[in-house]
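lol forgot to send this yesterday, sorry. struct tokens for the thing we talked abt
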């Protein structure tokens, strides 16, 4: 990057706004992950907005559950969920408390600590692929389920934080449908990314799962 990113932590008021304002405004911000191994920093290049009760694509669309409870809490916290029985994904809760919404962190450029991320992402052919996708991002930054509910505005010793960074020019921000979202939420153009950035993940539409045909009912 040609410019040095702003090192100022984002305040809670940044997250205490409608999700469709917060999501594109997260582009260019710097996510900090502190581990026992060391510190990693990632410039966010791709995100998706999920708007709770008005969004069929959101985990919170049908109400509060033990899994999504963090989304209903105060803004500026991490919502980490487990998917496909294999991976974690990292979201940032935003909007007023009680109105579940969040931003999925889909991709980014690792600015610091790539040497810590590479052993966790051995299939990455180059550093631009270390955090190219939400599960890859969480894996590269070592984000386990135990970080669910972490306050990202808690201060310099918190395991997760977000710095002001260097937001891109509005002319570089692109928007389109969210990856893998089906049903009524499919057409929402709530995926935001920095155009032509090599770390942005490829778009994939939702593919319905095929049911296995029961041999006993094959002639029914």
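and heres what i got for the seq, position by position
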């Amino acid at each position: 990057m040609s410019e040095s990113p702003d090192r100022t932590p984002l305040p809670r008021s940044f997250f205490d706004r409608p999700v469709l304002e917060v999501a594109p405004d997260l582009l260019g911000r710097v996510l900090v992950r502190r581990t026992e191994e060391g510190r990693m920093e990632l410039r966010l290049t791709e995100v998706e907005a999920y708007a709770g009760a008005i969004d069929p694509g959101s985990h919170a669309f049908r109400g509060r559950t033990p899994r999504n409870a963090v989304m209903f809490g105060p803004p500026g916290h991490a919502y980490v969920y487990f998917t496909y029985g294999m991976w974690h994904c990292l979201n940032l809760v935003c909007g007023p408390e009680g109105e579940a919404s969040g931003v999925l962190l889909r991709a980014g450029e690792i600015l610091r600590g790539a040497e810590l991320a590479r052993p966790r992402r051995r299939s990455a052919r180059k550093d631009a692929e270390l955090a190219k996708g939400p599960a890859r991002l969480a894996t590269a930054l070592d984000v386990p389920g135990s970080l669910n509910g972490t306050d990202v505005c808690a201060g310099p010793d918190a395991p997760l934080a977000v710095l002001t960074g260097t937001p891109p020019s509005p002319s570089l921000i692109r928007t389109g449908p969210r990856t893998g979202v089906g049903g009524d939420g499919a057409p929402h153009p709530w995926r935001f990314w920095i155009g032509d950035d090599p770390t942005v993940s490829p778009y994939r539409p939702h593919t319905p799962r095929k049911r296995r045909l029961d041999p006993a009912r094959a002639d029914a």
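The radius of gyration is 18 Å. anyway ping me if u want another try
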